[in-house]
Amino acid sequence: MKYMENIPNHLSKIDGQLGKLIILGFPFEELATNASFEEMIFLFLHNHLPNKNELDNVTKKLLSHRYLDEKILDVLKNAAANDIELIEGVRIGVSCLTLDMQSHRIDKEGINGALKIIASVPIITASYWRLLKGQPIVEPHLELGHAANYLYMLTGEKPAPEDVKTLEIYLNTVIEHGMNASTFAARVVMSTRSDFVSAVTAAIGAMKGVLHGGAPGPVLDMLLEMQKSGDIEGYLRHKFENRERLMGFGHRVYRVKDPRAILLANVSADVWKRREDKEFWGLAVDVETTALRLLKEYKPNRSIETNVEYYTALVLHGLGLPSALFTSTFTVSRVVGWLAHCLEQLELDRIIRPSSVYTGPSEQTWCPIEKR
Ligand code: ACO
Predict the structure, then answer these.
(1) What SUPFAM superfamilies is this protein classified in (predicted)?
(2) Contact between 121 and 332 (Cβ < 8 Å)
(3) 212 is annotated as an active-site residue
(4) Of 176, 179, 249, which is best to mutate to test ligand 1, by the most ligand atoms within 8 angstroms of its C-beta?
(5) Which domains does the chain show, CATH number per domain?
(6) N or C: which end of the chain has fewer CB within 10 A?
(7) Where are the beta strands (DSSP E) in the chain?
(8) Could you give phi then psi for residue 367, rounded to 5 degrees?
């Protein structure tokens, strides 16, 4: 097996030419629209859908981890006092899980260690979000599901069932996507026989950048700016002429529209029907049409289509989440994929060590400092 070039992955299969995404053998659309997030967590950690008993058990285990350790809270308070941005606070909080539970113990606990981290990410995110805004932290609600509790801890209000369902579809849609940058980062760390906390911390670092999980916030900012200026084409042409990239478009693997963007476009249409300011969704559709036309004009030799982050921005904004929360909300989901990859990597037990192509100078000789 050419292991270095092709890292084995039993979790997802992407066909970038046809725009298809298969998760553990299922078309992702079937899982995204039917499963609860707890069912998805079980599926990723056990590789099959849970029966009723198994679902009850995983739900109970997740609930047992639904708390924030005082030592981690202290660190987060410090970070908030220094106005550290949300995703960095989440990265700091996750790395501090070692304070709550020794990381070597987490790894020895295997799936339970993974559940601990999965349960902690939304709690750290929501708590740190409120600290940053100077609001009191909301204690976790032990009778709500994973997604509902996340919304509850962010807002302090029990969310409407239709909003919870929308969030679950979003979380299920973005839970896993092959060897993307953040998953690769997690697997590289895990491949050295390091630990889950270190792997997830590294993955969050990769997730943060605007070319990956940091894109949906700037998508929303861009849409809001165009709403203000009223000149969609002028705004977009200005971006192209300044050689800027349009956030929410393009993908390393997909050469057609990202299938997750198709699903989330429909989901966002439903969310925005429930809102008073419905016209914003119409603006986003007009922007997408104009952007795709201009991408063909400015980049005629490329197949640049809408990616998942474009409609992520519409779904999450439609749910009332501000753009500063988008990357961390993506992390609430993708951490499950990362940990499933970590478990796979642990089983493989082979270090990832890609080769590189040397591009430096040759035939140099030493020159003493006084002669340089
Ligand atoms: N806007 C303008 N030009 C673009 C865009 C874009 N969104 N995407 C690619 N291009 C251009 C590049 O400038 C480059 O042009 P050049 O060769 O003339 O210099 C060329 O297309 C590169 O095309 P690809 O090889 O298809 O793109 P690559 O694989 O290098 O990049 C990426 C993929 C990083 C996602 C890119 O499309 C991009 O920056 N998109 C915007 C950021 C974004 O939306 N990221 C989220 C991706 S989805 C996710 O990570 C969950």
Answers:
(1) Citrate synthase (SSF48256)
(2) yes
(3) no
(4) 249
(5) 3-210+325-352 (1.10.580.10), 216-318 (1.10.230.10)
(6) C
(7) 12-15, 20-23, 26-27
(8) -125, 120
